[in-house]
Amino acid sequence: MIASTRWLATASLLALAIPTAALASEPESGTVSELVVTAAPYAVSLDTITTSVDILSAETLSLAPPAGLGDLLAGLPGLRSTAYGPGASRPVIRGLAGPRVLLLQNGVGMVDASSLSPDHAVPSEAGQASRIEVLRGPSTLAYGGSGIGGVVNVMDDRVPSRRPGDRIEGRGALAWSSVDNGRSGALAANIGFGALVLAVDGATRRSGDYSTPGTPVSDRLAAATGLEPTSDTKQRNVSVEADSWGVGGSLVGESGGFLGLSVKRTDTGYGVPFAQVVSDPPPETLRLHMKQTRWDLRGETPFAEGWLEKIRLSVGHADYEHAEIEVDAGAVGTRFLSNGTEGRLEFVMRGSADRQGAFGIQGLTRRFEAIGDEAFIPGVEITELGVFTLQRFEFGQGGVDAGLRLDTRELRAKLDGRETSPPGAESGLDWATTRDTRSFSNVSASAGLFWKPSDPVFLAATLSLSGRAPTEFELFADGPHGGTSTWELGDPTLESETALSLELTLRWTGPDTRIEAHAWAARYDGFIEERPTGETWEDLPVFLYQQSDADFTGLELEAEQTLLRRDAGLLIGRVSADVVRGDTDFGAPPRIPAYGVTGEVAWRSDALDAAIEVRHVGDQTRTAPFELQTDGYTALNASLAWRPVPDAPVTLSLRARNLTDAEIREHASFLKDIAPSPSRSLSASLSWTF
Fold first, then answer.
1. To which H or E segment does residue 93 belong?
2. Which end of the chain offers a freer environment for a tag, N or C, measured as fewer CB atoms within 10 Å?
């Protein structure tokens, strides 16, 4: 993989000589009282929550084109995708990605290594999800400092928590996309045998190389490097083969309690885009293979009386492997292994009209190891422990949300016999004398005031303090990292980063109008980021993890207006917008997305839904070193969903994406200048429930 990495690094080095200055959810009218599961152990309605939340229902997910998790969510206000090819995409929330965005599976961490590098796939297929909740900002206190940017909770029914209404119930979906010959299918079913409920589900996704509006290599990169792009208008080596299946079962009591166990297997192979330029010899092609086996134990016990309403248990154990395969040589270059267990125990206090509360404990133990050509970090054992409480008080037209969490994290690295690289030694690293154990303790707290001066208006102000301990990459890296095309150096003396944030929320909910706005600001103390040292080694630019103060500010807006109301249906207009700006002591942070504005006109009826959407993303001219500026774009999208038989649970849908054939390059992506988004495409899907 090193040879291929150098192709990307060469382009980046030459560009340095130049001075540098998706799918949206469709909330239906009247869903504002829907309950948000992820925000707290107790139920909070969507119209009175003090944080910024989006919910993707099973119906929305079943109609979505085949995509990774980041690409699926890109386009929601404040969200973008890392867009590391179709095989590996993680969400970017409010300009933050990687370890600052916490991905959960049914409220428990993925226990994987996808947050450590942009080329690592997320072991979760949207086709198996029954619901996805997205929480923005560091006020997601219940899950600790790793959610300092936001939390994405992917939920499924693999451990059933209720008895099915009929003996068997489930859902299925089939989808196809033109631009990459993508095909996907998913099926899930719950079968009841009295108190015993069994669950089975599976999902598969296939896609090939996709078409691009022009040559994949950007004009800016070609001008900066002097390299000649090929005339190909196909993005090569980006095919995906993803399969996932799971089985589970629960004993479900008549009073609502349950206890169940499930197992899930995920197997994904995907290619990595390379710079398609005229060269001799051509660049190496790489294929990545991710597989994970995950066990989940979940349960809930309700109490009919007393101060305790319920106890909830969630435990996930996962064995994860990410292998990087040199296609031409047919050999595995590097393997990343992660094995661990994470669990949560929540105690929900019996609520009343003016009070809700909960407290809990969460723990993690994980072993991480890198083996092979690019094993740039040593083996690390990680243990975490956190305790938390959240309380909500309501009085009259207002109330208070408050929370407190204490976290400890310990990392024990295998440093015996580890050699220090020449660039590491030049930067002051010496693994022979470095402590092999680092321990961190962090306090996170939040306090929110909310007020409802009238029925349609909800106002809130939330002040949050969040602490995040450094990752194993940030502390112990020393070597070539193909995912970022850099020689990466950690700093074993890093301290925790903390963020003090303020968020103001306005929500207007009327019979024909819904407006939600969030203005926020965050001040980081000890913000951890990679910065170039100005040196190169083995044709790779050397980057060192460093800490500085940082300020992030942003605004998110969603508005919906019923334009026409008839017996046959509703005509609805929607607009959403977001903008984020970041500054550190070193200048602009890397890969901060430009502003985005989306407008949509949609018809909603029992038999037919149709929508036309225009999305505009601005230019990004504020760049960090080794970044080129990114041109904005305007894309036109359309969708149609038809339910041909009244009251029958079958939906046929068509989606047209990027009808203007715009060149779309996501500034948040490491690969934006060699791998644009696909050109004009059409996708079709069939979904049903039973």
1. strand 91-93
2. C
350 and 391 Cβ atoms separated by less than 8 Å:
no
| Contact indicator for 22, 81 with CB cutoff of 8 Å | yes
Record the tokens describing residue 574, joined without a space.
């929607």
For tokens 């206090």, the residue is 349
- Report pTM: 0.92
Alpha carbon distance 526, 574 (integer Å): 39
Question: pLDDT tens digits, residue range 646-689?
Answer: 888 999 999 999 999 999 999 999 999 999 999 999 999 999 99
Q: Are the beta carbons of 178 and 682 closer than 8 angstroms?
A: yes
Give yes or no for residue 25 having a pLDDT over 50.
no
Question: What count of other Cβ atoms lies within 10 Å of the Cβ of residue 30?
Answer: 10
Both structure tokens of 57: 């229902």
CB within 8 Å of 558: residues ≥ 6 apart: 77, 514, 515, 516, 517, 574, 575, 576
* Region of residue 254 (left: phi > 0; alpha: psi -120 to 50; beta: else): alpha
3-state secondary structure 260-283: EEEEEEEEEEEECCCCCECCCCCC
- Owner of token pair 């094995």: 339
The C-alpha atoms of residue 136 and residue 49 are separated, in whole angstroms, by 12
Cα(269)–Cα(334) distance, rounded to whole angstroms? 15
Can you tell me the distance from the alpha carbon of 399 to that of 401, in angstroms, rounded to the nearest whole number? 7
Q: Which residue has the tokens 């990027």?
A: 658
Q: Copy the structure tokens of residue 577.
A: 């917008």
According to DSSP, residue 297 is labeled E
CA 55 to CA 73: how far, in whole Å?
A: 10
3-state secondary structure of 99: helix
Three-state SS for 46?
Answer: coil
CA atoms of 685 and 62, how far apart (whole Å) = 8
Tokens of 467: 């602490």
Question: How far is residue 686's CA from residue 682's CA, in Å, rounded to a whole number?
Answer: 14
Per-residue pLDDT reduced to its tens digit, 143-159: 887 788 899 999 999 99
**Sequence-distant (≥ 6) Cβ neighbours of residue 519 within 8 angstroms:** 503, 504, 554, 555
Q: Is the peptide bond before 138 cis (omega within 30 degrees of 0)?
A: no
As a whole number, mean pLDDT of residues 292-313 equals 96
The 3-state DSSP class for residue 558 equals strand
Q: Which of 26, 99, 156 is nearest to 574 (CA)?
A: 26
- Cβ neighbour number for residue 298 with a 10 Å cutoff: 24
* Single-letter amino acid code for the residue at 548: S
In the chain, count of helices (H) and strands (E)? Answer: 6, 35
CA distance 456 to 469: 41
Q: Look up tokens 């690592």; give the residue.
A: 120
